[in-house]
Design goal:
It comes from Alteromonas portus. With 80 residues, the chain is mainly beta. The protein has helices at 19-22, 47-51, and strands spanning 9-18, 32-36, 42-46, 58-67, 73-79. It has two helices and five strands, in the order E-H-E-E-H-E-E. A three-stranded antiparallel β-sheet has the order 1-4-5. It has a two-stranded antiparallel ribbon with strand order 2-3. A hairpin with a 5-residue loop joins strand 4 and strand 5.
Length: 80
């Protein structure tokens, strides 16, 4: 797990999408998706951060994204 510093922002997402909905993650003209975090904030997430979690069933689980003070993503990970 990635360490979190005081200046980092942490966002949690719960995702449950069938494979058909995940196909949009592979469209070259859509480099990002906007997701609503569990805290209610809209957050732009690069599609390449989500692709690694897509299976033949789609994508599901609870995820955590850590962003540093410069708005650079430090990690995007599925939580157990």
């Amino acid at each position: 797990m990635t360490s979190i510093s005081q200046s980092d922002s942490v966002f949690y997402f719960s995702i449950q999408a069938p494979y058909k909905q995940c196909e949009v993650l592979y469209v070259a003209t859509m480099p990002d998706v906007v997701m609503v975090s569990e805290s209610g904030l809209s957050v732009q997430v690069p599609t390449n951060r989500l692709r690694q979690f897509v299976t033949s069933d789609g994508i599901k689980g609870r995820f955590r994204m850590i962003v540093d003070a410069n708005k650079k993503i430090k990690s995007f990970e599925r939580l157990a």
